[in-house]
Amino acid sequence: MPHRSVPHPAAPDEPAGGRPADLRPFMAAFPTGVSVVTTMDSDSVPHGLTCTSLASVALEPATLVVCIRAASPTLAVLLAEGHFALNLLHERARGTSDLFASGAPDRFDRVEWRLPLGAGGPHLTADAHAVADCAVVRTAGFGDHTAVFAEVRRVTVRDDRQPLLYGLRRYALWSAAATAPQPAAPHPELPASLRPAAPEGGTRVVR
Which residues lie within the region annotated Disordered (predicted)? Predict the structure, then answer.
């Protein structure tokens, strides 16, 4: 008897009428760090916005991607100038995250920043625990956002500050999350004779 495929009924929570799925609740359930993208226009006016859509792409060459709303004025300047700074906010910088998400025209007047020689954009010196100076190498527009691929030219890290986290539309502190009890190991520890040798040295190289 020939096989006849039968359409499966839609799941109870499937969007009716083929409406696009709302991605926001899904991505809200994926906690991330918080960053502020900054750049300078040709008149030396700073521009910036809060961004949680970023990821590393490659280590050689060091490349990352940030996704920014296509209509953003900061994106327009960033693409025109070809460079920017990515400021990762520390856990006491929630106010700065909200400020740069608000689009307030005086936002750079309300934070501490500087522009080091060779920087891709303003460094938020009082609010960032790490900054990457980046040069744009490629862009890809999709829907209402533009993916900006950038080569990282320099990284500055402060080890005395901890990251700010964001998920489920709430902020959280890395220091609080890091002190939570860890789950028990699923397997007994290997005997010393079977453990892999530890790598030599503990130096962290930042380029």
Answer: 1-23, 182-207
